Amino acid sequence: MVIRLNKIRLFKNYFNYNIINKITLSALFILFLYLFGEFIDFLKNFAGYKDVSVYDYMIFLFNQYIFLVFFLDLFFLAIIKNFISKNSFSKYLILKFSNRKQLFINNIVAIAITSFLYVLIAVLIVIIQGGFNLRVSNNWTTVSSLSAKITQTEVSGYFKAVSPLVACLLNYLLTSLYILFIGIVFYVSSLYFRKTIIPFVISIGFIVIGVTAYTGSVQSAVKFSLCENAMIYSQVWASTNFLYQIGFKLIFWLITISALIALGLYRVKRVDFKFEGEK
After folding, report:
1. Cys staple from 242: which of 42, 96, 161, 247, with CB 3.0 to 4.6 Å?
2. How far is Cα 266 from Cα 121, in angstroms, rounded to an integer?
3. Contact in structure between 259 and 185 (CB atoms under 8 Å)
4. Pick from 100, 83, 109, 150: nearest CA to 8
5. DSSP readout, 104-123?
6. What's the predicted TM-score (pTM) here?
7. What's the rounded mean pLDDT across residues 238-264?
8. Does the pLDDT value for residue 75 go beyond 80?
9. 53: helix, coil or strand?
């Protein structure tokens, strides 16, 4: 029991060391400013819609690939950059854990917690903004911001399979899994390449490929793009059962994230860690 408590305390210290810093606070502050600007723009565009709810705003915002690609994921990479740092604290952790596999799992868990908390903070900002200006009714409206801005029609029948609250929760889950995927790509890449810049380049490469596939005209490529599977709304799934769409996307993330973790486990058993100050 004492050993387990010590490891939990060690994990907490490790998490705080890597996450609670000026870079994280700066990234969150910039994110807040961006969301504030988006909300002002949203209110201007939909000033005539009296029945618009905070759920409409969240779904509208989290189903824009520009928001996902140019803000959420890039800021997240800046926040978790310390996880690939080969500093003395990382060396201390290797000595404290019984093997490198435990350290790898520790990092994956920390990145997972960070990704879900990070997206949750964005959601809370949206809720606070919308709570004072928009309706909070858990019912789909005849004309919502989603229909007016994205579909140009009434909310599709498949979308009404769940309530707005459930739709937002599912959207939060999918977005968090996308951010987690990018974070694991970043971390696993650092196990294969010693230079810090390369994991950034590889992660951004995945992001660019995802955007290219999503904005392309090949539907099969769109369905397997990262952006597509981070969103709850989809043109390519419009005629498909809503729950089937969600199931497909969850399986997509399960397979891709598991594959990355497997690559990381394979590498961590063979990698020779070098730290700052070592040749």
Report:
1. 161
2. 33
3. no
4. 109
5. HHHHHHHHHHHHHHHHHHHH
6. 0.85
7. 88
8. yes
9. strand
Residues 279, 277: Cα–Cα separation, whole Å: 7
Residues whose CB falls within 8 Å of the CB of residue 97, separated by 6 or more in sequence, listed in order:
7, 103, 106
Q: What's the residue count for the chain?
A: 279
- CB 115 within 8 Å of CB 176: yes
Crossing angle of helices 100-131 and 88-96, rounded to 10°: 120
CB atoms within 10 A of CB 200: 18
Tell me the one-letter amino acid at 255: I
CB-CB contact of 79 with 27 (8 Å): yes
The token duo for 192 is 């294969």
Structure-block tokens of residue 71: 């803000």
Mean pLDDT throughout 57-83?
85
How many Cα atoms within 13 Å fall on the side-chain side of residue 259?
8
What is the phi/psi pair of residue 87, to 5°?
Answer: -95, 180
